[in-house]
Amino acid sequence: METKLWSDVDEYTTGLLFPKDPVLDAALSASEAGGLPPIAVSPSQGKLLMLLARLAGAKRILEIGTLGGYSTIWLARALPTGGRLISLEYSEKHAEVARANIAHAGLSDVAEVRVGDAGETIQQLEGPFDLFFIDADKKSIPHYLEWSLKLSRPGSLIVVDNVVREGALIDDRSKDPNVLGVRRMHDMIAAEPRLSATTIQTVGSKGYDGLTVALVN
Description:
Layout: H1 2-17, H2 22-33, H3 43-55, E1 60-64, H4 70-76, E2 84-89, H5 92-104, E3 111-115, H6 118-121, E4 131-134, H7 141-150, E5 157-161, H8 177-191, E6 195-204, E7 207-216
Helix pairs in contact: 2-5, 3-4
């Protein structure tokens, strides 16, 4: 009952607050047709990312985990003229779908997808970036957070998705690498004086999870 109610509320608010968007709908359809897992952010979460990027005045965005480019499109739309987004993706298959979706959105000159192990490719980048969206393998989140800090500036925003893990975040006996990753991330943030952060639990069409938003001081 809860999951249906959460999804119904998502559908209601999306219907009121979101104009019909054939480009984003096509991106989801192309991802499904390409066999990608249905784990893209929800429309509400995508729009939140866009609003955060605009509020931050982001001109350079780094996304870690592209999938089919759905969140990439939301973020790229927030960029001002001359802005740039780099998205790191491990799977060549996913990257091909994402690039096609980005091209269909008319954003190929703004958003670039780089293929490879993000743990390595992130070390080849030059900062600073104004906003980071981390939505890749959760066990590696501590590494991505460490490098996001290195590539940040005061005022940069770091957003990390899927950090509550249906409540498993608080299980200190868990052996799940994904849970261990998000727990380690929270420990790192708590000990890092350069970061001011909050974690928000979320429910909706994607179930029960949460996201962390951290501001670099």
